[in-house]
Design goal:
There is one protein chain. The protein is α/β, with parallel strands linked by helices. It is built from 5 helices and 5 strands. It has a 5-stranded mixed beta sheet. Helix 1 runs parallel beside helix 5 and helix 3 packs parallel to helix 4. The relative contact order is 0.16.
């Protein structure tokens, strides 16, 4: 999770929402990414999706069942769907996302009967730091919107 938190900080410095994701197999980092939606002008360039794409390419497979995904924020519905399709074995995330999350909040995608793969879920690792990164990022953005 430490590497994912560092990637989130890099994303914030680049003007992206601070989310970082790391895919591991065993103790080895297979792929990593930070949010890149603005920089890539790609609404699907969430850290999780980019990391999953890179992991699939690195391992030469779309099935990542022996892998873990470490992410600093509870995945949204799009990312949770990608996690299920990639068949990630374990999802570890730091901060819950009551507004946009789809794992323990919102649609709870993995609990739906139509979801064919449910990863093991570990929540709360690094939660305080991830939440602080997000609060700080959005507080700075709000300050910039205030009239002069």
């Amino acid at each position: 999770m430490r590497r994912a938190l560092d990637l989130a900080a890099e994303a914030a410095r680049a003007g992206e929402v601070p989310v970082g994701a790391v895919v591991t197999r065993g103790e080895t980092i297979v792929a990593e990414a930070a949010n890149a939606m603005r920089g890539a002008t790609d609404p699907t360039a969430h850290a999780e999706v980019v990391a999953l794409r890179r992991a699939g390419a690195a391992l030469g497979t779309s099935r990542l069942d022996e892998c873990q995904l470490w992410v600093t924020l509870e995945p949204c519905a799009m990312c949770a769907g990608a996690i299920a399709l990639a068949r990630i074995g374990r999802l570890c995330f730091a901060a819950e996302d009551p507004k946009g999350g789809a794992v323990v909040n919102g649609p709870r995608l993995f609990a739906q009967p139509t979801c064919h793969h449910r990863p093991e879920i570990v929540a709360g690792l690094g939660e305080d730091e991830a939440a602080a990164q997000l609060r700080g990022f959005f507080a700075e953005r709000r300050q910039g919107e205030l009239p002069g």
